[in-house]
């Protein structure tokens, strides 16, 4: 039993290390750490420095100096709620057009529930409670940074599309926009190989009904980031219903290889190695793979039939 437990723990930390040591370094994420306690700053610098570029400040005033300076733009802001003025800083970040989209992860003690509620009302992306495991906070920071990276990438690649076409919760395309983009690509290259994968988060509707919007939104956000991270920047991703994400794969591998990839995504997600979701949350997937002219609607219906 101990050997089996050790094996799964090793695989968990190895997968986190592998993801971070490859993708994050290439993306050069820059973190702003806001904490008035010197010992906490030192600890976080030690945790993050192998993986991220970090800037640490001890006061809200110093943080504002960086945030208001156009020469600095951070990918993730980590804010300890014990720091005086933390919630006010969070509100200012979200009111600033240049920084409003930057994910802010707040750190709180386990008895700071009211502060956490206030922080989420002010626009926090995620939270960590003290004491925390270094692997957990690295993983959450990575996914927050990836969330922001994919959003910037989306807006750069499709700069002609206004932000109303993008789902503001998940930062991927709305259903109608995804459909239009796919049909446009298909009309120009009708005989290219292409694939559409759909991912359904089974149990999400019940979470919204029984646990509330906050948890439901967190699950769909993190699921979208996780799925997005498994595909290339040329692929087109959409939030097509409350509990469903679709990925149009522009240059798919062989049908067998793509099926294997999707199965791996589902397996990894459902093993909860990269998430902390309730047990009733299960990811399902379906796919269609074609090399002839087809509309998005045709591909979507075929993928739905394959959903399992």
- Indicate the mean pLDDT: 82
Instruction: Report how far apart the termini are.
Output: 32 Å
Major sheet: arrangement of strands: 2-1-3-4-5
Query: What global shape is seen?
Result: elongated
Number of E-type strands: 10
Helix content: 40-55%
- What is the name of the CATH superfamily of the largest domain? Response regulator
Strand content: 15-25%
The biggest sheet, with number of strands, parallel, antiparallel or mixed sense and barrel status, is: 5 strands, parallel
CATH architecture descriptor text of the largest domain: 3-Layer(aba) Sandwich
How many domains make up the 3D coordinates?
A: 2
What is the helix tally?
Answer: 11
Classification by helices and strands? alpha/beta
User: And the CATH topology of the largest domain?
Assistant: Rossmann fold
Please provide a written account of the structure.
The chain is α/β, with parallel strands linked by helices. The protein has two domains: 2-152, 3-Layer(aba) Sandwich (Rossmann fold); 161-306, Reverse transcriptase/Diguanylate cyclase domain (Alpha-Beta Plaits, 2-Layer Sandwich), CATH 3.30.70. The protein is built from eleven helices and ten strands. Strands 2-1-3-4-5 form a five-stranded parallel β-sheet, with helices on both faces. A five-stranded mixed β-sheet has the order 6-8-9-7-10, with helices on both faces.
């Amino acid at each position: 039993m101990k050997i089996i437990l050790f094996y799964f723990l090793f695989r968990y930390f190895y997968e986190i290390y592998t993801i971070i040591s490859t993708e994050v370094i290439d993306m050069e994420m820059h973190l702003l750490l806001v904490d008035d306690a010197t010992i906490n700053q030192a600890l976080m610098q030690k945790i993050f420095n192998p993986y991220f570029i970090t800037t640490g400040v001890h006061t809200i005033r110093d943080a504002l100096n960086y945030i208001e300076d156009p020469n600095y733009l951070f990918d993730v802001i980590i804010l300890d709620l014990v720091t005086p003025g933390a919630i006010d800083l969070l509100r200012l970040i979200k009111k600033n057009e240049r920084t409003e989209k930057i994910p802010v992860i707040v750190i709180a003690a386990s008895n700071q529930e009211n502060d956490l509620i206030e922080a989420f009302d002010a626009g926090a992306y995620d939270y960590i409670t003290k004491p925390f495991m270094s692997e957990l906070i690295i993983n959450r920071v990575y996914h927050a940074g990836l969330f922001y990276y994919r959003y910037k990438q989306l807006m750069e690649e499709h700069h002609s599309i206004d932000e109303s076409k993008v789902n503001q919760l998940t930062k991927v395309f709305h259903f109608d926009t995804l459909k239009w983009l796919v049909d446009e690509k298909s009309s120009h290259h009708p005989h290219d190989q292409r694939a559409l994968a759909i991912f359904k988060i089974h149990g999400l509707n019940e979470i919204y009904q029984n646990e509330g919007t906050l948890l439901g939104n967190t699950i769909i956000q993190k699921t979208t980031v996780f799925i997005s991270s498994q595909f290339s920047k040329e692929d087109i991703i959409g939030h097509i219903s409350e509990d469903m994400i679709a990925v149009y794969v522009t240059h798919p591998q062989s049908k067998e290889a793509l099926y294997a990839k999707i199965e791996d995504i589902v397996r990894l997600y459902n093993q909860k190695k990269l998430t902390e979701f309730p047990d009733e949350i299960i990811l399902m997937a379906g796919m269609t793979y074609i090399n002839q002219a087809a509309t998005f609607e045709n591909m979507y219906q075929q993928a739905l039939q394959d959903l399992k």
